[in-house]
Amino acid sequence: MTTNAAAIDSPTIVFRNATRADIDALVALVESAYRGDASKQGWTTEADLLGGRRTGADDIQACIDRPQSVILVAERDAGDGRRQLLACAHVAVEDGAGYFGMFSVNPTLQGGGIGKVVINEAERIVRGDWGLKAMRMTVIDVRDELIAFYERRGYHRTGIKKPFPYGDARFGEPKRDDLRFEILEKAL
């Protein structure tokens, strides 16, 4: 894991909602955070559990187009007049609560606090903009380190399990046969 402790200190993170112009960059970010060798630079990799794609342009487009749904983009000034894409997360309204997913931080910046800032902003949107009292997410239940990260942020395991969609390539190509999702929840 590469740690950049100064990642959130300077320059300031700027948030915005993704647009269609961001689709290719967002697919590349999500894939780099979860799949293949690039993902192994960070600690959120699923490369030992799943191969294949993590997301695609169709998924990103659907999230952007869906009502009560945004893909939150975190950027900072790259110093040359351009913005550097740091992280993203899908934030939506589902079943009367906020939903948090597709959370991706550039693997070379993981461990520097960017993820915590993104989660806080997503929770602010759900609580402040949409007036909801809870945030939920689904996590592969064998991802103990990732679940512990969310528990430190106030999420708790609900015990509600959902089957992994084996055979649906949109969710990746499983490398083991014991995968399933668990719903985590936090009161806001």
Model description:
The protein is 27% helix and 32% strand. It is an alpha+beta fold. It has a seven-stranded mixed beta sheet, with helices on both faces. A two-stranded antiparallel ribbon has the order 2-8. β3 and β4 form a beta hairpin. The radius of gyration is 16 Å and the shape is globular.
Task: Describe the protein's topology.
Elements: E1 14-17, H1 23-34, H2 36-39, E2 50-51, H3 57-65, E3 69-77, E4 83-94, E5 97-105, H4 114-129, E6 134-140, H5 144-152, E7 156-163, E8 173-174, E9 180-187
Parallel strand pairs: 5-6
Antiparallel strand pairs: 1-3, 2-8, 3-4, 4-5, 6-9, 7-9
Brief characterization of the structure:
With 188 residues, this protein is an alpha+beta fold. The protein has helices at 23-34, 36-39, 57-65, 114-129, 144-152, and strands at residues 14-17, 50-51, 69-77, 83-94, 97-105, 134-140, 156-163, 173-174, 180-187.
Radius of gyration: 16 Å
Largest sheet: spatial strand order: 1-3-4-5-6-9-7
The residue fraction in helices comes out at 25-40%
The CATH topology: Aminopeptidase
Average pLDDT value?
87
What is the general shape? globular
